[in-house]
Automatic annotation (TrEMBL):
GO cellular component: plasma membrane
Protein name in the entry: Siderophore ABC transporter permease
Keyword Transmembrane set for record: yes
Species this chain originates from: Calditerricola satsumensis
Broad class of the protein's primary localization: membrane
Family assignment from sequence similarity: Belongs to the binding-protein-dependent transport system permease family. FecCD subfamily.
SUPFAM superfamilies tied to this protein: ABC transporter involved in vitamin B12 uptake, BtuC
């Protein structure tokens, strides 16, 4: 599969077009909403700030929200791409592999048992929960004589996801207060987050982006098969572990700041593969770009569907991703 962009020039041009689309969506995200503003107002909010409602909405709400949507979308897209490469499973996604569920469980336990309610604490706990879930998948997938295999990783991810979901449901059933406090976060959202909570998470995302592009090279050899990779001198276990750590960095940091958002890590890699084929480094880059586009478009759409109220971004991505998931599942069955 060569993809639609079969030459380096076309892939570079496609990247420029994608960045232009992303810039246009970012402009729409900053300028439009329940309170309409002009680009002149946007510029004045940073050059001649006067404390007006318009300036406060731009600087404290829309710009941080747009930046977070871009970063989270890129991280989820890359995490999904690496998961699909590592497991050779086209249906792999950070949510399916239990990372989102692990983060949600950490939040619910903190609220139910320790009465923690601050969003800053939610951020830290979500990152820890997602990381623990990812490490649990890696450990379970490594058990047995053959070590870590794509099938065992997939089964381990499903097991961790089911366990975390069950325990979370149990806590919420017996503690209605916890349900009230975390319900909006559990649906996934980039609203209500600010740069003070986002910036501490950003270094993990940047490290994950760089790691995703780097590890895509060794993964190309690994995807030829375990025996072939070993015969070429590759330390397959090291590649798998490093890939797992990068996935945890990307998915964990995303869930930490925005909550569990599904399907972006499923849709973006398939779209990237259609464009660039199995050139894995290009695929990782395009998955990040397309993930950012999908998430930002979903966030903008969520503002307008029920204006002046809005739908959580997790609901919007589910509306986009569920039909894609069904179509992929039907294709794989055939």
């Amino acid at each position: 599969m060569t993809g639609l962009l079969s030459t380096p020039a076309r892939r570079a041009a496609g990247l420029m077009v994608g960045l232009l689309v992303l810039a246009l969506l970012a402009a729409v995200s900053v300028s439009y909403g329940a309170l309409a503003t002009s680009w002149r107002t946007v510029i004045e909010a940073y050059t001649q700030f006067n404390g007006s409602n318009e300036h406060l909405v731009i600087t404290e709400v829309r710009v941080p929200r747009t930046a977070i949507a871009l970063a989270v979308g890129a991280s989820l897209g890359m995490a999904g791409a690496l998961l699909q490469m590592l497991t050779r499973n086209p249906l792999a996604d950070p949510e399916v592999f239990g990372l989102n569920a692990g983060a949600a469980l950490a939040i619910v336990v903190a609220v139910s048992v320790f009465s923690i309610s601050s969003l800053a604490a939610f951020t830290a706990l979500a990152f820890v929960g997602a990381a623990c879930a990812g490490l649990g998948v890696l450990l379970l997938g490594s058990l047995g004589r053959d070590g870590m295999t794509p099938l065992k990783l997939t089964l381990a991810g499903a097991a961790v996801w089911a366990l975390c979901e069950s325990v979370t449901s149990g806590f919420l059933t017996v503690n209605e207060r916890a349900l009230d406090e975390v319900l909006f976060w559990l649906k996934g959202s980039v609203a209500g987050r600010n740069l003070e909570r986002f910036l501490p998470v950003l270094p993990y995302m940047v490290l994950g982006w760089l790691g995703a592009v780097w590890v895509a090279g060794p993964l190309r050899v690994l995807m030829m098969g375990e025996d072939v990779a070993r015969s070429l001198g590759q330390r397959t276990m090291r590649v798998k572990v490093v890939t797992g750590v990068v996935i945890v960095l990307l998915a964990g940091s995303s869930v930490a700041i925005a909550g569990p958002i599904g399907f972006v890590g499923l849709v973006a890699p398939h779209a990237a593969r259609a464009l660039v084929g199995f050139r894995l480094r290009w695929q990782a880059v395009y998955s990040g770009l397309l993930g950012a586009i999908v998430l930002l478009a979903a966030d903008i759409g969520g503002r307008y569907v029920a204006m002046p109220k809005e739908l959580p971004i997790g609901v919007m991505t589910a509306l986009i991703g569920a039909p894609v998931f069904i179509a992929l599942a039907r294709r794989e069955r055939r």
